[in-house]
Design a protein that fits this description.
This protein is an alpha+beta fold. The chain is about 35% helix and about 25% strand. Strands 1-2-3-4-5 form a five-stranded antiparallel sheet, covered by helices on one side. A hairpin with a 7-residue loop joins strand 2 and strand 3.
């Protein structure tokens, strides 16, 4: 049985959603708000409650061997195999931790 393109796209989107959810869980160690937003493609909106302007949207892209987290301005933040390091980078971007 083969899957349709729509089923494959839905499966990929749900996998990306799952990885974004894991990153959100990892970000719970920091004083930030992290919510997975479902739109045309899911993304993680991370904000620092101490600042009106400190907001970053992170997307998740399928790569050959894992998933990559990408900042809204195109910088690679880390992979699905390094959630702790990636979470630290995202928290730093929104001013919730020191470098």
């Amino acid at each position: 049985m083969t899957r349709s393109r729509q089923e494959e796209a839905t499966c990929a989107t749900s996998e990306e959603h799952g990885h974004l959810g894991k990153l959100a869980d990892e970000l719970s160690r920091y004083d930030v708000r992290a919510d997975v937003v479902d739109g045309q493609g899911p993304y993680l909106r991370v904000s620092n409650p101490a600042s009106t302007y400190a907001v970053e949207d992170v997307i998740c892209e399928r790569r050959e061997h894992d998933y990559a987290f990408i900042a809204s301005f195109g910088v690679h933040l880390g992979g699905s195999g390094s959630l702790g390091v990636t979470a630290h980078k995202v928290a730093w971007l929104v001013g919730a931790t020191e470098a």
